[in-house]
Amino acid sequence: MRLILGSGSPRRLELLASIGVVPDAVIPPDIDETAAPSELPRRYCERLAREKCEAMPGIATDDVVLCADTTVALGRRILGKPADRAEAAKYLFALSGRRHRVFTAIAVRHGDRRWLRVSESRVRMKQLSDAEVNAYLDTDDWKGKAGAYGIQGPASAFIPWISGSHSGIVGLPLHETTTLLQSAGYPVWSRA
Ligand SMILES: Cc1cn([C@H]2C[C@H](O)[C@@H](COP(=O)(O)OP(=O)(O)OP(=O)(O)O)O2)c(=O)[nH]c1=O
Q1: Residues 6 or more apart from 45 whose CB is under 8 A from it?
Q2: Measured between alpha carbons, how far is 180 from 177 in angstroms, rounded to an integer?
Q3: Fewer CB within 10 A of the terminal residue: the chain, N end or C end?
Q4: 69 lines ligand 1 (CB under 6 A)
């Protein structure tokens, strides 16, 4: 049984490694991440995780495939990965001084079977000054991250409070991931 991580996110690979899981192959998915009109953040996140899993090429029947999607939600608004610095600044000012939610959906596929779980967390971001936003943007840490920040990096200085799953916010909720991999018959914790 091979484990295929259907993700190009270095965070997801590192989080898996932290529980001793090393995929046999890593394949970045190639899907259209455009939200449907008036699509709600949780549904969007679930749909993307599922679609990433279905888009994996060359999967053998006995392979276990793991994919995920992380979406930052400000109310009903979806904040994806910013296209550029200007969009990142817009997202950070929108998040400033408020609470938002972070969803990470994980999808697992094994033969004809499919599993899906969503981790939901809440995050409070302090009121950010122009100087703080500009200094953070200068670090480039926002690039490729939903909502334009990474809680595992310098932006953690802006976050006084979270509720939920830290690994889920970073991109792969390890409790749910372990449960799903075990459901699919992939050994976690039980290897010699
Ligand atoms: C909110 C938040 C997101 N992120 C990252 C995790 C994800 O990599 C990214 C959200 O984008 P995703 O579309 O979920 O993932 P991705 O494009 O990086 O990788 P792939 O689709 O190939 O699996 O944001 C952090 O690293 N830290 C955070 O605090």
Answers
A1: 69, 70, 71, 103, 104, 105, 118
A2: 5
A3: C
A4: yes
Mean pLDDT over the full length of the chain: 96
82 lines ligand 1 (CB under 6 A): no
Residue with structure tokens 């060359």? 58
Closest CA to 146 of 56, 77, 54, 66: 77
Report pLDDT digits (tens) over 57-79: 888 999 999 999 999 999 999 99
pTM listed for this prediction: 0.96
Instruction: Say if ligand 1 is within 6 A of residue 11 CB.
Output: yes
* Residue of minimum CA distance from atom 17 in ligand 1: 9
Query: How far apart are alpha carbons 89 and 93 in whole angstroms?
Result: 6
Question: Does position 164 have pLDDT exceeding 80, yes or no?
Answer: yes
C-beta 7 within 6 A of ligand 1: yes
Percentage of the chain with pLDDT > 70?
A: 99
| Contact criterion met (CB below 8 Å) for 43 and 160 | no
pLDDT value for 191: 56
Cα of 122 from ligand 1 centre, angstroms:
16
Residues 6+ positions from 164 with CB-CB distance below 8 Å: 102, 119, 120, 121, 122
Mean pLDDT, residues 144-162 = 98
From the CA of 8, how far away is ligand 1's center (Å)? Answer: 9
Q: What fold characterizes domain 3-183?
A: Maf protein (3.90.950)
